[in-house]
Amino acid sequence: MTQYFVYARDRVGAGVKAALTEDHWTFMDGYAAELIARGPTLTEDREHSTGSLHIVDLPSAEALHAFVYDEPYYLGGAFETVEVYRFENRTGRTMWEFADAVDGYNRYLVLTKDAARPLTSDHLIVYGDLLDGDVHVGRAALLEAPSVDAARELVQAADAAVHPWEFGGRR
Description:
Layout: E1 2-10, H1 17-29, E2 35-42, E3 49-58, H2 61-69, H3 72-75, E4 79-89, E5 106-112, E6 124-132, E7 135-145, H4 148-155, E8 161-165
Antiparallel strand pairs: 1-3, 1-4, 2-3, 4-6, 5-7, 5-8, 6-7
């Protein structure tokens, strides 16, 4: 099994995700045992989706292809781009095993090319290295923090791109 980071960014104005959400969730139900993390990235006001993130453990390149390209949002034209990387999970857990949530903190996806030092914090939900083949191309961290600036500071990377994010799946 290999872990993968799959981040699809919404096509602006596509407006098809709401009609496909149940189909998307049903599709993802088939991967429940393989999912490490999932959920939408959001606008700053957290009112609208900007993308869809999944970290998943799959047995083959064929299984990865099916996961990415047979997904209902993808088939429905909801995404502008899809990024796929091999993922090395540095926390060794899933988002569902995160037990240190703080009331009033928001959740974020933080992407950076910097991987100078290991991260340690009770506020890390899942984080790991992003690889293209065997080449390190960055790091992804799912974390909670009181603000965007605090999320960026936790990752300690000047080039950090911070995206509001929330746990995904059926409510």
